[in-house]
Amino acid sequence: MEHPYKTPEADLADERLTAGGFLSGGQPLWKAFWLFFAAGFLLLSVAARQAMVAIVDPLMQEAPGEHAVALTLWGMVGVELVRLAYLCLSLVVVWRCGRNSRWVAARHASRAVLLALILLTLYSIYLVWALLASP
User: Membrane spanning segments where (predicted)?
Assistant: First the structure.
């Protein structure tokens, strides 16, 4: 039996949104964009930079010349691969949560930002690939 004092109009939480998580697209767009995408990527970048300082820098100090450069490059590649994986995950989350906004302009703007970031990421990968392939 339903509670007699709880009317459907008084329920402030949308059950459809609170039932799912970020990856299933069940969260509001502002949470997916600002908390998962922006703040999460910022925290991951800070943690990755600190990992480079804490792990790779001491090893680089002890390694001879060529090995120090190679170690630094592989450390940077590892950090960027982790950041790229999180970027892909957060792009999927924001895309799926994009429909959960009252403002149509916010929905379209979020999708436009995602498409621009995908193009920018692909162009960055192309530039790195071209730089590594050049003699």
Answer: 32-56, 68-92, 112-132
Report the C-alpha gap between 79 and 45 in whole angstroms.
Answer: 9
Does residue 21 contact residue 96 with C-beta atoms inside 8 Å? no
Give me the sign of the Cα torsion angle 95, 99, 105, 108. positive
Do residues 94 and 37 lie in contact, with contact meaning Cβ atoms separated by under 8 Å?
A: yes
Give the separation between CA 96 and CA 64, rounded to whole angstroms.
Answer: 48
pTM, rounded to two decimals:
0.71
- What are the residue ranges of helices labelled H in 56-103? 57-62, 65-97
